[in-house]
What we know:
The structure holds two protein chains of two kinds. Chain A is of the alpha/beta class. Chain A has ten helices and twelve strands. Chain A has one domain (5-263): Rossmann fold (3-Layer(aba) Sandwich). Chain A has helices at 5-14, 21-24, 68-75, 98-103, 121-125, 139-152, 169-180, 199-214, 226-230, 255-263, and strands spanning 30-39, 42-52, 56-61, 83-88, 91-93, 106-109, 132-133, 136-137, 187-191, 218-222, 235-240, 243-249. In chain A, a hairpin with a 2-residue loop joins β7 and β8 (136-137). Chain A is globular, with a radius of gyration of 18 Å. Chain A starts with a helix and ends in a 5-residue tail after the last helix. Chain B is mainly α. Chain B has a single domain (4-165, 234-386), classed as ABC transporter involved in vitamin B12 uptake, BtuC. Helix content of chain B is 75%, strand content 2%. In chain B, α3 runs antiparallel to α15 and α8 runs antiparallel to α9. The longest helix of chain B is centred in the middle third of the chain and has 27 residues, at 175-201. Chain B is globular, with a radius of gyration of 21 Å. Chains A and B meet through α4, β8 and α6 of A and α11 and α12 of B.
Amino acid sequence: MTDTPMHAGTTALHDLGPAPVADDARTPVLSVLGVSKRFGAVEALVECSLDLYAGEVVALVGDNAAGKSTLAKVIAGVLQPDAGYLEIDGQPVSLPGPGAARQHGIAAVFQDLGVCDNLDVTANVFLGQERTHRGLLDQGGMERVSREVLSMIGANVPSLRTPVGRLSGGQRQGVAIARTMLGEPRVVVLDEPMASLGVVQTAEVLTHLDRLRSLGMAVLVIGHNLNDLRAVADRIEVLRHGRNNGSFDGPTSRNDEIIGAITGAWRQ
Amino acid sequence: MNAVASVWELAQRNVRQSGIVVAFVVICGLFTFLNSNFLSPGNLTNLVLQYSYILILAIGMMIVIIGGHIDLSVGSLVALTGAVAAVVVIRHGQPWWVGVLAALGVGLLVGAWQGFWVAVVGIPAFIVTLAGMLMFRGLTYQVLNNVSLSPFGGTYYQINNGFLNGLLGGQGFDVFTLVVFGIGVAGYAFSQWRRRQGRIAYNQVVESLPLFVVRLVLVAAVVMAFGWQLSQSRGLPVVLVILAVLVLVYAVLTQSTVFGRHVYAIGGNLNAARLSGVRVRFVNFWIMVNMGLLAAVAGVIYSSRTNGAQPGAGNMFELDAIAACFIGGAAVSGGVGRITGAIVGGLIMAVMSNGMQLMGVPTSTQQVVKGLVLLVAVGFDVYSKRRGSATV
């Protein structure tokens, strides 16, 4: 990597191409198995389970405080479950921190917390996984890879030297999603990527999700707007009071069914 | 494909940074106009000797502030480390370097102590260092048994008061000093040229070639004029060499290392940094250790300058260092600022103090003026931010 950062970067990205589908069709890339998480007296997750397959976008929906973000943080290694565990390719793993999750190919984008406004685009894309050359930051190499990943997910930013604080909401999400593309991710978790975005910017983010799927990744996206999510999701999973409360086919299910599951009018 | 930015564009893009440099030039010009002695060889030399320790503190303080913290204990720590060196060298008759090492060791230890409370326990640095300010002042009195110790004499005294002079001869001026400055200017020009070539290679915006050359020539002229004046006085101050090395090392540390990048990230958005896998505790711990080390360096230089240790030394130094950082472009909320900014901010404070002293302005008025300058500088920052200008 020290000599040819450019080459290393592109190789890493090309390795992500559609994984061997024959096996992955049966073994999920990531399984959440009976995970529970408490915060004091509050049960955020109760024996919650979820499977994610390669080349699939799964939407996770639920009312406020249904445990969506908690589940995302457990998968990303930010929180550790009190009970239950995670499997990657059918092998149990423990994720003591975000770094460990990333080593297992899990990348996450969190709501409003993903970027540092004072740093430029490249610095944000590589934050926490900077490349170095003889002990110093490899600025040029990182800029080249940033440009590549941004174009891969179809994001458009004016300049890589722009502080992220001066970008639009959609561009910021683009940068946040581009972050996940480094280090050969296979699972990408996005917590409310469309929150407080306008119509055009939402469409921009949906394009990014579609690109991630076509790169063969397993994508878990958390959101509220069912119409937006159904435009891109293959499967919609419902959480209610921290429990699984229904799984729906993305394109064919009806909104009222899903809303019933979210509100508790319909139970699994 | 290479976009070439106009002067106006560049000035706007770095309105804060260039504003500070312009203000510095204006202040220097003003004092030159008011007092013909201001730019004299003797006074410029004196300026370097008199404020070097504030500049060294400002380097460490800038990193602390970029990380979103503050350090109120550095003044007391300057006193404590100077006192330890004095006890070792003067009372116990050890060689000068043992005293320096002892002071640096105490600085590292104190830095680790404060780093522990800030990074591991999670107490805001404001509180930890406020406690430190009291504790280290008290410890200074205990180490010195409430009395001043002097004189250091010998090599220790030369750290702040020594000069590299006469190594290459010269008639009425020191050739060695000029050679060192020449090498410095050449190095600066070379690094700027390489940076420009790099930017062109990555299709980034650069200033036009004539503008680039004019800027280099201007900087070179100012620096060489400064060197010429020094060479006519007593030659190259040792402390200026120490300061130059520190500025270079810390400019690279903050701008071109992973550690520096993470300091900016923590100050910019703590949660984003943590979720991105930045080791926040590690970085915060070493920010404080580094501040302790630099405070010890300042302590050695200050005790060398005064040729002894006093229980009350370094009082209010922390406020001078903090003011230097904010005048030099640091943001109150953290995440923004540069080492060069801290130096220019510190120089503005130094030039104002020195200039007003030469004019015989009373100390009380000096403090009022310095306070107003701090207020105006940060006010300008807030104003330009509201207009959406770049501040990084």
